[in-house]
Amino acid sequence: YRTQHPPVFASMMTSKLLLLVCYVSLLCFVSSSSSDFSGISQPSKVSLGLYYESLCPYCSSFIVNHLTKLFEDGLISIVDLHLSPWGNSKLRSDNVTVLCQHGAYECFLDTVEACAIDVWPELRDHFPFIYCVESLVIEHKYKKWETCYEKLNLNSKPVADCLSSGHGKELQLQYAAETSALEPPHKYVPWVVVDGQPLYELPKCGIFLSCVLDGPMADYENFISYICK
């Protein structure tokens, strides 16, 4: 588990530059494909997976301060975003009881967010709700998560039914299986995967320290640059 905070957030200018590079590259590809490769289907969207847990401070920060960049200037139109609220949670030997890294309330909120994804499958519907809940996590007000229904003018009944019926528990187990099947296995959260390739955390080193990571180095907070590539 990480014990230090992520790097300082990139400046807005850097974000805009990355978006510009991305769109120029995309326009060039589309132009080339229409003129030289007529008859060939357009490329599929770039897949982006986020494996996280609801009360992880790094996860909530990533969702609220970084992932939202996908929705600036329409970048989401070329991205297939998949959210998986399980993270470092564990199943006991009975394969039913769930143990969450940040306690029982995290298990509950993970299930709430899993239900939200299930009952509102369109990204434009469930992402604002998850964003709202994770914003409250950052503010240490996560027990007021139900206020997100009113803020977003959402009907609370579908999620409430999902929780009370036991379907939320089934969704938890599905996300558990999905996370445990990751290859390579996740090492921490948030675990960000672009087109099947995880973006490893850059080492945090002092002047007199050497740093070693198992595997290639990358910075998941710069996920937009990997989408553009």
From TrEMBL:
<keyword id="KW-0732">Signal</keyword>
<feature type="signal peptide">
    <location>
        <begin position="1"/>
        <end position="32"/>
    </location>
</feature>
<dbReference type="InterPro" id="IPR004911">
    <property type="entry name" value="Interferon-induced_GILT"/>
</dbReference>
<comment type="similarity">
    <text>Belongs to the GILT family.</text>
</comment>
<dbReference type="Pfam" id="PF03227">
    <property type="entry name" value="GILT"/>
</dbReference>
<keyword id="KW-0325">Glycoprotein</keyword>
<dbReference type="InterPro" id="IPR036249">
    <property type="entry name" value="Thioredoxin-like_sf"/>
</dbReference>
<protein>
    <recommendedName>
        <fullName>Gamma-interferon-inducible lysosomal thiol reductase</fullName>
    </recommendedName>
</protein>
